[in-house]
Design goal:
six-stranded mixed β-sheet; about 45% helix; about 475 residues
Length: about 475
């Protein structure tokens, strides 16, 4: 007889064995008592139909094989973590939950939501403050973080949970827990929980620190949400959260806003995409926001611009996405400005250069100024009055003074180059410029007027029918 095998035997045949190997499972036909503690023994009536018995055993093996195949096919991302717990709920017949080192709830089966004692209504993904305080005062809890096998934890409320520690980079990272109402943990629960835990360890090893869509491992995601939202934020909390990932408030940052290429398209797996981005760019935090993906990069600690744009272009083309990129800005407290820059760059750039994959705010600052100006005041009210006079004069007299002035200024007041562009003689151009200044009461020697004229050309160009 061999270890780790299942045997079907009569009671008399078992008694004939001089010594039984350890780690053995026996289905005994008839009543029997054994002293060996390392043997799993189940007794059935002696007259049990063997065909029925073998079919039942085969069905049990099939059920566990199908369950294990399902676990092996799950994706190595946050969805895979959730689905492992969901698939294992009926097998273990108990509540499954994963909590990280900061007492944030990473994933759980739905029945966990009925445990009001363990859930903070204001922060459903985090244990209540009173529970955290009790756990922090439990010296046994820290000692258990080093265990690599399944163990039973006796909590403050005289309850027990079956636990398995999850490690990342050889450090304690999170804890998988099985909660049963009657605290009846059998040997099979130890084995099955360890089997699940080892699979979770492999997934967590490949999942980026910030790729889970809950505030785990640090509160960086919450900090970003607070800074982008309208609610008040606590500066001391922001500092503490940044320090946990070695970031500082006054470092340089950059913001990227990513949308699907086609309207009404959704990201197929935002958590996985965020994980990809974070692995691609060190010291970045990506998160889903309103159906899109936002990325905050610590430029001081992170990627060089050339690497950033090269990697981003490949990512966008492969996934059919588009992106807006803010300027580099100093201070995490300016994050909201970076967000508006990135969103505006994408919106304006997509209109002006539809075939581009990404748009930098630096390239569209003038368009941004004009767009936001004409949203408040009519374009005519912002344009130089002399330019509007030239437009009306051209319409009445069928002249081309507006285009002549624009070409002259675009060519940096070089009459020779401007005349060539207009296909007229240089002397003709000079005469026209004199006439233009008279009609529009324009003084090209006035710096303020030149600035207003150039802006006026851009505003009128912006408002042309697309």
């Amino acid at each position: 007889m061999k270890e780790h095998y299942l045997y079907v035997m009569t009671a008399s045949d078992i008694n004939k064995q001089k010594k039984l190997p350890a780690n053995l499972a026996i289905i005994c036909l008839g009543d029997l008592e054994l002293d060996e503690t390392m043997i799993d023994l189940m007794c059935v009536p002696e007259n049990t139909d063997l065909r029925t018995l073998f079919n039942d055993v085969q069905n049990i093996f099939t059920e566990y094989d199908e369950w294990d195949d399902l676990l092996n096919d799950l994706s190595y991302d946050y969805d895979g973590i959730k689905n492992i717990l969901i698939a294992s709920r009926s097998v273990l017949n108990g509540t499954l939950v994963i909590a990280d080192v900061f007492f944030n709830i990473v994933a759980y089966t739905k029945d966990f939501l009925r445990n009001d004692e363990y859930i903070d209504a204001s922060e459903p993904h985090r244990a209540p403050p009173n529970i955290i305080k009790i756990l922090l005062e439990d010296s046994e809890l820290t000692q258990l973080e080093a265990l690599t096998e399944v163990f039973i934890y006796h909590d403050y409320n005289h309850g027990t949970s079956l636990c398995f520690n999850i490690f990342k980079n050889q450090q304690y990272y999170a804890r998988l827990m099985l909660l049963k109402e009657n605290f009846d943990y059998q040997q099979e629960h130890f084995f099955l929980l360890e089997h699940i835990g080892k699979k979770l360890n492999r997934i967590f090893a490949q999942v980026s620190t910030f790729s889970l869509p809950v505030p785990i491992y640090n509160n960086l995601r919450l900090v970003i949400n607070d800074l982008l939202g309208e609610q008040h934020f606590d500066l001391s909390v922001i500092k503490q959260s940044l320090e946990k990932v070695d970031w500082l408030i006054d470092q340089d940052y950059q913001f990227i806003y990513i949308k699907p290429y086609f309207q009404n398209q959704h990201f197929p797996n935002a958590a996985y995409l965020c994980s990809q981005l974070e692995q691609m760019w060190p010291n970045s935090c990506a998160n889903e926001m309103d159906g899109n993906i936002v990325v905050v990069i610590n430029v001081t600690l992170g990627t060089t611009p050339n690497t950033l744009f090269r990697d981003l272009a490949v990512f966008l083309r492969d996934g059919l996405f588009k992106a807006g990129i803010s300027r580099c800005f100093n201070g995490i407290l300016n994050l909201k400005s970076g967000y508006h820059q990135a969103v505006s760059a994408l919106e304006i750039g997509n209109i002006k250069n539809e075939m581009f994959w990404y748009y930098q705010f630096d390239d569209y600052i003038l368009d941004f100024i004009i767009t936001n100006s004409v949203n408040l005041i009519s374009s005519e009210s912002l344009c130089h009055h002399g330019l509007l006079t030239l437009i009306r004069f051209d319409e009445e007299k069928h002249t081309d003074y507006y285009n002549t002035l624009k070409t002259f200024m675009t060519e940096k007041y070089n009459s020779t180059h401007a005349a060539e562009k207009l296909y007229i003689h240089r002397t003709t151009l000079i005469d026209r410029i004199v006439k233009i200044q008279e009609i529009g009461k324009i003084n090209l020697d006035d710096w303020n007027q030149r600035i207003q004229l150039m802006l006026s050309f851009e505003i009128l160009e912006h408002n042309k029918p697309k």
